[in-house]
Amino acid sequence: MKAEIIAVGTEILLGQVVNTNATFISEELADLGIEVYYHSVVGDNPERLESLLKTADNRSDLVVLCGGLGPTTDDLTKDVVAKYVGQNLVEDVAGRKELDLFFTRAKRKMTSNNLRQVLVFEDGIALPNETGLAIGIFYQSSTTAFLLLPGPPSELRPMFLHHGKALLTEKFPQADKLISRVLRFYGIGESQLVTQLADLIEEQTNPTIAPYAKPNEVTLRLTAKVQDEISGIKLLDKTESAILEEVGEYFYGYGEENSLEAVVVKLLQEKKCRVTAAESLTAGQFQATLANVSGASAIFAGGFVTYAKEQKEQLLQIDPALLDEYGVVSEECAKAMAQNARTIVGADYALSFTGVAGPTELEGQPVGTVWIGLASETEVKAYLYHFTRNRSYVRHSAVMAGLDLLRRTLLAK
Amino acid sequence: MKAEIIAVGTEILLGQVVNTNATFISEELADLGIEVYYHSVVGDNPERLESLLKTADNRSDLVVLCGGLGPTTDDLTKDVVAKYVGQNLVEDVAGRKELDLFFTRAKRKMTSNNLRQVLVFEDGIALPNETGLAIGIFYQSSTTAFLLLPGPPSELRPMFLHHGKALLTEKFPQADKLISRVLRFYGIGESQLVTQLADLIEEQTNPTIAPYAKPNEVTLRLTAKVQDEISGIKLLDKTESAILEEVGEYFYGYGEENSLEAVVVKLLQEKKCRVTAAESLTAGQFQATLANVSGASAIFAGGFVTYAKEQKEQLLQIDPALLDEYGVVSEECAKAMAQNARTIVGADYALSFTGVAGPTELEGQPVGTVWIGLASETEVKAYLYHFTRNRSYVRHSAVMAGLDLLRRTLLAK
């Protein structure tokens, strides 16, 4: 099974957009046991796209096209492919219903070009778009399968994960299955993780171990090539044990769509504990991150953003003398913020964040210096961190460190 | 002048590495006035690379190849291209000197495969590698120019910037430069924007107008092809005026790296106004977004996250009777939140956010229903929105709507 990926969009050829869709689809197809032989990018130009389609049709069994399904005239992927394979375009009933609903809810008038987004090949299969309006299309010609996906990653990813993947698995069952498992780590860098697991990664061929670095975390994808699921799970279990023996202290959870905040919210729910926060440099980002998780309201009632010194005094009732003596970037300030936030809101735990996001230093302390306080019924402690890179990375690092601190505290409870 | 970019590397086809080299080279070539028509990626496979080279040679004047210049056997780009254009490989004297120096300094014995890295085409030009060992190569055949660059971005970028760029400018002086400008819009969908500008976009060839949708905003990139910068700016100004005549009410700023929050923070600084917020469904995201902008501390001291009803009562001192009578998803609640937050913190403006993020409805109101309150010294108003899609999109939409509300209020001041 040979596959290739064609991204359509002049903005990619101008260097304005990185072709991360090809990366994502490649990773997903590898999971399905489908090998990708080529990526191509072509601009919004019908002749060049058609010529590329012809080449792809001749050399591949599956052609995945990304982009060019939107409402405007430069969105031409659907028209060009339809013409190339000789298919008429018809309206997809379910897609049209969603489109109408969208404009009714948004109380906006629908312009007629939007209808282009819900056209499907007459013998094709429409893929619903859960996060946008343009439907996807799967079509099997006598020689080649075509999968058309929307360009925005926020639409392409859920469409592929929730619809495309199952469809390809059904249409192209591979003798060898790839079964994979994602392990998530916080608190260890990619190079360190790979160094500690070097022997394992080199010797190991089934399952393979692929590290992947994300901002402030690392995931390992274990992929076993097997004929049945049970032997796959056994292989994965064995490798996972060997990995966790080396770096288990940094492991926090499983799964591609998992996150540190999801693990923390679940733990809080299980332990029936409530949390609050007082945030200075993170300015609400810790609380907003908790509330990313649906069901957060069971464990989080509210908290404080105390960006300036005056609001640490006013909203959190911290003694101005303490702030004058130790400064706001201090253990004492972090502890007072956490303790007072916990008391005022009446939560089981309170986190506090105070430090230097940058770009310039504060109270003589360098960018990246962050104190995180954690107050519980029995004690209050503060922890000092030195984060690196830019303002936004320092703030994200602080939020992740706070989540991990809370996770470890809850696990030790 | 037609160019294309070929990246060589199986790791890209497996989705382990993102092809950022193509993005970088595209941007740089656009700057030089050289148009890129295709990107391709092929694995470490000589037959497939050769077939791609043939296609590229036929359709392009310049082919930039990235990757596969290293010392190992799967680094095959140089051999395949040399064979394709019929060139012998000879040692580059300067490259060899650097290579020897490297191993002498590192006190390591050089393995013989390293010599492959300093081979150049007999009629080619070697490009020095300031941050690695593999030299680059420029070669002009009777029809096509080939530029071979190393794969690691840390080597490719300096090599292109310090050597490749000057070489291409000298070999291919372009009469025309590309000058571009990005206009940013909030509050209008891509399809609506394009409909309103349909005539302009269709008729306009210089500058071209390219729309691009991002979450909750749309940008238009105007690109003029000109011989000098002054006439380019004139062309861009003229087209910009025509665009703003149609959709100027949604325009909020210029530039690829600009944002609604940056514009709002700048306006607040200019007007010497301070803002606070009380956030329910957004749970701190509005305040964290403001604090994305460096310098936010001048206009933002702090605020509230009041996720649960009890914290609206406690932290914001809202009368429980009001919440019981109208509910938390109500105009009255949004107004009380904004008004009380403004009074408590002592800011010039206060925003409030209350609504239904989902996944389930609240107080009988559907997911996406959001009230945003805005309190100033003279008045307090609340605005009703119906956002769509998922939890995270509803919350992001609310933050963006709040920013725009504040922006318009400040502009009207």
UniProtKB/TrEMBL annotation, chains A, B:
<dbReference type="InterPro" id="IPR001453">
    <property type="entry name" value="MoaB/Mog_dom"/>
</dbReference>
<dbReference type="InterPro" id="IPR008135">
    <property type="entry name" value="Competence-induced_CinA"/>
</dbReference>
<dbReference type="InterPro" id="IPR036425">
    <property type="entry name" value="MoaB/Mog-like_dom_sf"/>
</dbReference>
<dbReference type="Pfam" id="PF02464">
    <property type="entry name" value="CinA"/>
</dbReference>
<dbReference type="InterPro" id="IPR041424">
    <property type="entry name" value="CinA_KH"/>
</dbReference>
<dbReference type="InterPro" id="IPR050101">
    <property type="entry name" value="CinA"/>
</dbReference>
<dbReference type="Pfam" id="PF00994">
    <property type="entry name" value="MoCF_biosynth"/>
</dbReference>
<comment type="similarity">
    <text>Belongs to the CinA family.</text>
</comment>
<dbReference type="Pfam" id="PF18146">
    <property type="entry name" value="CinA_KH"/>
</dbReference>
<dbReference type="InterPro" id="IPR036653">
    <property type="entry name" value="CinA-like_C"/>
</dbReference>
<protein>
    <recommendedName>
        <fullName>Putative competence-damage inducible protein</fullName>
    </recommendedName>
</protein>
<feature type="domain" description="MoaB/Mog">
    <location>
        <begin position="4"/>
        <end position="170"/>
    </location>
</feature>
<dbReference type="InterPro" id="IPR008136">
    <property type="entry name" value="CinA_C"/>
</dbReference>
